[in-house]
UniProtKB/TrEMBL annotation:
<dbReference type="GO" id="GO:0006352">
    <property type="term" value="P:DNA-templated transcription initiation"/>
</dbReference>
<keyword id="KW-0804">Transcription</keyword>
<keyword id="KW-0805">Transcription regulation</keyword>
<dbReference type="InterPro" id="IPR007627">
    <property type="entry name" value="RNA_pol_sigma70_r2"/>
</dbReference>
<dbReference type="Pfam" id="PF04542">
    <property type="entry name" value="Sigma70_r2"/>
</dbReference>
<keyword id="KW-0238">DNA-binding</keyword>
<dbReference type="InterPro" id="IPR013325">
    <property type="entry name" value="RNA_pol_sigma_r2"/>
</dbReference>
<dbReference type="GO" id="GO:0016987">
    <property type="term" value="F:sigma factor activity"/>
</dbReference>
<dbReference type="GO" id="GO:0003677">
    <property type="term" value="F:DNA binding"/>
</dbReference>
<protein>
    <submittedName>
        <fullName>RNA polymerase sigma factor, sigma-70 family</fullName>
    </submittedName>
</protein>
<keyword id="KW-0731">Sigma factor</keyword>
<feature type="domain" description="RNA polymerase sigma-70 region 2">
    <location>
        <begin position="29"/>
        <end position="87"/>
    </location>
</feature>
<dbReference type="InterPro" id="IPR039425">
    <property type="entry name" value="RNA_pol_sigma-70-like"/>
</dbReference>
Length: 183
């Protein structure tokens, strides 16, 4: 039989006090977990200011739902992350679109052109052969972002990579597509 360690007893006591509304314990938990939550949300939404806003919203929701937490079902951090991810997924479309627009503008500046119009024109010209030499997941991201108007964050989540990685791969891929057309 494994006996719980003293650390587990302390953590369990903190959770119990937190669930009963101890604001000092809540502050301690916030200080312990907020940096990690912010890191997850920063990767998820791709914008630090927006991630900070989501983190604050998440911790307000964590406080209000503290009695719903069941330590027998999952760890406290896992529960907090679920709430934080939900907060990020509920961002208003204009905030998600603003972030996507900023990344699109960054890519447009790299190539000094409107990439969305360029890709749509190439797709019309090439039909099913459009971007045939491109990695399937990035081709899917191009379709989601430039043809279905999804955000970069939404496309990144759907294909399972970070927004930063998607941005980098998108720049390389667009360079590849432009290069193949010039050859």
């Amino acid at each position: 039989m494994i006996l719980p360690s003293a650390l587990n007893d302390v953590d369990n006591n903190l959770v119990t006090l937190f669930q009963h509304g101890d604001k000092e314990v809540y502050t301690r938990l916030y200080n312990k977990y907020a940096p990690a939550v912010l890191g997850v949300l920063s990767r998820m939404v791709g914008d630090k200011a927006l991630a900070e806003e989501c983190t604050n919203d998440a911790f307000c929701l964590i406080w209000s739902k503290r009695k719903d937490y069941d330590p027998a079902k999952e760890r406290l951090f896992t529960w907090m992350i679920k709430i934080a991810k939900h907060c990020a997924s509920c961002l208003p479309p204009e905030k998600r679109n603003q972030m996507a627009d900023e990344i699109r503008e960054e890519i447009d500046l790299v190539y000094a052109m409107d990439i969305k119009s360029y890709l749509q024109e190439m797709q019309k010209e090439q039909g099913d052969n459009f971007a045939s030499g491109v990695d399937v997941t990035i081709r899917e991201a191009i379709h989601l972002i430039y043809f279905e108007s999804h955000s970069f964050a939404g496309a990144a989540e759907k294909i399972g990579i970070s927004v930063d990685a998607l941005r980098e791969k998108m720049i390389q891929t667009i360079k590849q597509i432009k290069g193949s057309l010039l050859a």
